[in-house]
Amino acid sequence: MKLLFDQNLSRKLVSRLADLFPDSSHVQFHNLAEESDTQVWDFAQQNGFCIVTQDVDFAERSRLYGAPPKVIWLRCGNSTTLQVEALLRSGEEAIRALISDNDLHCLELQENLLRGSKRLLM
Fold this sequence. Notes:
This protein is of the alpha/beta class.
């Protein structure tokens, strides 16, 4: 399962989550950090990646055009890399369901840090 982390997420997530999501990458590793959403979208589509982002634009694009690529929209605000990693680890089952189900195109992972609850929305 190949995840492509958007520029608004740490490159460290690639190595930190390699046990769950091998072959993942970051837009910076492909000289896409300063490119348009369309270029990132096209790259992910052509290379079999699922985009992981905190940017609503990719979620909206997914709703308009469907998949591929699939999108994981992290709704966790200004979080540390450790918190983002924990959210993705806790959402592993939902992420696997997203990847394997042809009818799903976008997954929202949301964590309410104030109350400590997590919601997975599909």
